[in-house]
Amino acid sequence: MEKKEMIAMLLAGGQGSRLGILTQNTAKPSVSFGGKYKFIDFPLSNCINSGIDTVGIVTQYKPLKLTQHIGIGIPWDLDKKYGGLSILSPYMKETEGNWFLGTAHAVYSNMEYIDSYDPEYLLILSADHIYKMDYSKMLNYHKERDADLTIAVCPVEYEEAKRFGILNTRDDGKVFEFEEKPEEPKSNLASMGIYIFNWKVLREALIEENKNRDDSDFGAHIIPKFHEENKKIYAYTFNEYWKDVGTIQSYWEANLDLVKINPDFNLYEKYWKIYTNSNIQSPHFIGIDANVKSSFIGDGCEIRGEVINSIIGDNVLIERGVRIRDSIILDNIKIDSNTKIIKSIICENTNIGADVNIGNENEIGINELKRVYNTGITVLGENTNIPAGVSIGNNCVVLGTTTKDMYKNKKLEDGKNIIINIKEV
Amino acid sequence: MKALGIILDSGKNSTFGKLTDKRIGVALPICGVFRVIDFGLSNMTNSGIGNVAVITQENSRSITDHLSSSKWWNFGRKQGGLHLLTPSSKENGGIYKGTAHALYQNLGFLEHSKEEYVVIANGSGIYKIDFMDVVKSHIETDADITVVCSKEKEGFDYTQYGNLELDKNNNIINFEEKALDPEWEYISLEIYVIKRELLISLLKEVNEEERYAFVRDVIIRYKKRLKIKGYEFNGHWASVHNIKSYFAVNMALLDENIRKMLLQSSPTIKTKVIDEPLAKYNYNATVINSIVANGSIINSYIESSIISRGVYQSENSSIKNSIVMEGVKIGRNCNIEYAIIDKNVEIDNNKIIIGTEEKPIIIRKGEKV
Q1: CA distance B300 to B319
Q2: Which pLDDT tens digit goes with each residue over B179-192?
Q3: Which of A297, A302, A308 would you mutate first to test chain B, the one with the most B CBs within 10 A?
Q4: Are B134 and B146 in contact (CB under 8 A)?
Q5: Neighbouring-strand partners of residue A8
Q6: Listing from the earlier edge strand, what are the strands of the sheet with B279-281?
Q7: Which of A280, A294, A311 minimises the CB distance to B270?
């Protein structure tokens, strides 16, 4: 087989538990962004725009929607005869089988796939962030320094730095120290979880490490090991937009960043296009009574109400008298007349009756799931039904087909939840 | 019961003025993201017809780009597929002298196919139909040729179509092309079903006699010798044959019922996918009764218009009753009414472009105004 200089492994098996019910039925990489895209579209588009045409996608947690979205890679021109896109799922061996137990273990388990392209370099990616990056520039940097490992880093605010893995570097970019979530960070260069390894060096390390443990992780085991063994590790500084979308609040912020007049992250640039598996749909229609301002509207929508500072995905029906503000409405949603929605996230295939109130700007109600829901945003999960005339407070979670009798005095108080266990598929 | 599809480019491109300078009529955009020909192609694939040829006089870039891959319409690549057939410079070749001549030049395609029936459709129709219903009726009535037709409807300019008379058994007993004074209640929708073998032999016959028109030289001439049946289609149907009908077909989509029927009900119309982000409405946007495609950025007033992909409208401009095609940029303080702004046009600040419903002003593709 032909040799590939660099191939990518995209680790897409994570659940993303801090996104709460957004990932209730799907892996984090296939969560919707900007009304149209999925998280995974960003690294995949970056790959093809950087000239990387061989990508192994490692899946594990609830992969159905993800694999349907990816298909054979047509939207990214990754349907290639040689190379292209491969979905790598956990598998059984003769005597045993196992799940991918750590990021490095997932790559170790797919060594055969990587070896089949005999690459010099291996690019490790995840689908947790929104950014546009030319990986070929990072590869040049890696080659110029003759590094064993290059880690992409992004400068963050010092107060924020304690949430990240921080790299301390010399002037030439060489890394001399790692600190995982340091209390008093010495630098503000956060690891972006994007690595370029010399494959031969990594291969050896993976084999060795797997003898000691079967849950090896890049951050916790492989990189410290490289450091201990005095391998050449460099930091590649990325100064452009890089946004974590791992929590409900950051997800909501990153989405609504897009509708600003001059957004920090511009999806309309032609030279670095983000590709996705678009459904072919007719454009949307804005009715006579509609009022749409500072918003994104998707294909196939019929808008007859008011939409302000919000993102409306594909195929959303918004009836007369509806008022939506500061919210994210995903695909295939019906919102009946005179309903008001504020500061909420509404997931796919949901029906909301007439005269419903969702969200408010009062003091934030404390949610029992406060690790996930703590900033006042109300979230309606996928396939949810809200009966006409009810009122749902802030910081609430509603999931499933709810009926009037589930709302005391037609009301769900701030911070309260109705979560109907829907059958596991 | 398998059928092969043929979509004909009517070749009447002179009636579109500047709009067809750089494209053929069937490549004109509809509703911002579709092309006229997408309706024919989607009807084929939605009817389960997987082997389709598009026969066109001109091999323009707009059509080859659009038909670059069979996958947009779910046609196969190994089993069946989408074929673009253009005039040949070889023996019996040259510019198509008529539909029969165009088909005759591509006899090889017909001979090498295996499907028993052929569905031939003019590519300029905007409609949704299951061609297999027509093929079924064709078999049940034991017809030699079935012609899809429609009864009088408001807005039909009869003089643009074939006018025909059916007897009570749906046999076509009279047929006149583009009659000046139409006598009968049906018009032909230029959709035909015929057995492949019969089509091949008829094409050979008429070509021998140096006859080239399918309607005049086959249907009308053979109407007594062959069993030619009419199949009545009752759904919404319109055709794009000149600037006025092009404008009207687009504007009709502002009607909720027509939009639902043509574009929102299943099976859907398919087209080449272009990934654009969602349409963006900035703070000063005021849009009513309009269709807006993705990738556009709106900064001011739009009323009763069709806005295609990737359009940028600056502040304080007004667009009314107009069609704005892909990639158009509109400056500040413009006033646009009854206009068709073709692809990639750039309109400077302070421009006034006002046409009429009867005669919308056309701004040529790529022009800077």
Answers
A1: 9
A2: 788 888 899 999 99
A3: A297
A4: yes
A5: A55, A123
A6: A417-419, A397-399, A378-380, A344-346, A328-329, A311-312, A295-297, B279-281, B297-298, B312-313, B329-330, B346-347
A7: A280
Task: Please indicate whether, in this complex, the C-beta atoms of A282 and B264 are within 8 angstroms of each other.
Answer: yes
- A55 touches A7 (CB < 8 A): yes
Judged by DSSP in three states, A296 sits in strand
Percent of chain A having pLDDT more than 90?
75
Contacts of A34 in chain B (CB under 8 A): 277-278
Please say whether the beta carbons of B126 and B237 come within 8 A: yes
Burial class (CB in 10 A: 0-12, 13-18, 19+), B84: middle
The two structure tokens encoding residue A415: 């911070």
Q: Are B281 and A295 an interchain contact pair (Cβ–Cβ within 8 Å)?
A: yes
A71-119: per-residue pLDDT in tens?
Answer: 889 889 898 888 999 998 877 777 776 777 788 999 999 999 999 999 9
Asked if A287's CB is within 8 angstroms of B289's CB, the reply is yes
Q: What is the DSSP string of B261-320?
A: IIIISSSPP---------EEE-TT-EEESEEE-TT-EE-SEEES-EE-TT-EE-TT-EEE
- Nearest 5°: the CA angle A250, A251, A254 is 80
Contacts of A335 by beta carbon, 8 Å cutoff, 6+ apart = A305, A316, A317, A318, A319, A322, A324, A329, A341, A352
CA B20 to chain centre: 14
Contacts of A248 (CB under 8 A, 6+ apart): A18, A19, A20, A22, A345, A372, A373, A375, A377, A379
Q: What is the DSSP letter of B251?
A: H
pTM equals: 0.91
For residues B104-141, one letter each, b for 16 or more C-beta atoms within 10 angstroms of the residue's C-beta and e for the rest, the string is bbbeebbeebebebbbbbbbbbbbbbebbebbebbeee
Global ipTM: 0.91
Find the CB nearest B282 among A261, A286, A289: A261
Interface touch B291/A267, C-beta < 8 Å: no
Chain A interface test: which of B261, B294, B299, B305 (most A C-beta within 10 Å): B294
Contact (CB<8Å) B275/A275: yes
DSSP letter for each residue of A277-289:
-----PPEEE-TT
Asked if the Cβ–Cβ distance from B281 to A294 is below 8 Å, we say: yes
> Which range has the top average pLDDT, A88-92, A213-217, A316-320, B362-366?
A316-320
